Amino acid sequence: MRKVFMIALAAAALAFGAGTASADNLQDGARAFQGGQYNRALALWRPLAVQGNPVAQNNLGIMYLDGKGVPQNMNEAVRYLSLSAAAGSSLGQNNLGGLYRDGKGVPRDFGRAMQWFTAAAQQGNSAGMYNLGLMHELGQGGKPDPFRAYMWYSLAADMGNMPNAVAHRNALWSRMTPAAQQQARQLSVNCKRANYKGCA
Predict the structure, then answer these.
(1) CA distance 124 to 79
(2) Domain 1-108 carries which CATH code?
(3) In 3D, which of 159, 100, 97 has the Cα closest to residue 125?
(4) What pLDDT shows up at residue 133?
(5) pLDDT at position 200, please?
(6) In this predicted model, what pLDDT tens digit does every residue of 113-147 receive, in sequence order?
(7) With left for phi above 0 and alpha for psi between -120 and 50, is residue 17 left, alpha or beta?
(8) Is the Cβ–Cβ distance between 37 and 122 less than 8 Å?
(9) Phi-psi region of 81 (alpha: psi -120 to 50; beta: other; left: phi over 0)
(10) Residue 4 — φ and ψ, nearest 5°?
(11) For the chain, what are the domain ranges?
């Protein structure tokens, strides 16, 4: 339930201004990866990652994390996800946040996890929003905050691709008083109006 790591698909390549050849290789790599052709995905993504493409760096990091097409190597996973996150990829930011939250390949650090999830969420990344909701609900890095948890779950659910966010949002909602529901809903509206900035 808590493992929300993402491989970039074709549309993400265009978001980073990738050239046509790079976009094609990212797309072809995504298709190969989804089809279990990990060696082909690696051959398409590695050159792009070495050239500094943050989407390819994210994808390579996930391959090393899961040991698909390469031997599992946490150091390489952390290295590539860190490069991707530092370059501004919301996918890399979310995935690096997951490593810090779970203490995989890095010491567990809820503060750093929150930092990376927030960076991803501020770009509209639904997985980053969902992960922030989990941290607030569970009190990871601070006291549990059901209002912030609801807000992030609600924003992630609005994206339409995070069914777990819908379930968590609805469960929190059912435990709130009408006044608390109104307050939580208003937080979501305000955050969306602010384009997800300053909502953490």
Answers:
(1) 24
(2) 1.25.40.10
(3) 159
(4) 97
(5) 72
(6) 999 999 999 999 999 999 999 999 999 989 999 99
(7) left
(8) no
(9) alpha
(10) -125, 85
(11) 1-108, 110-200
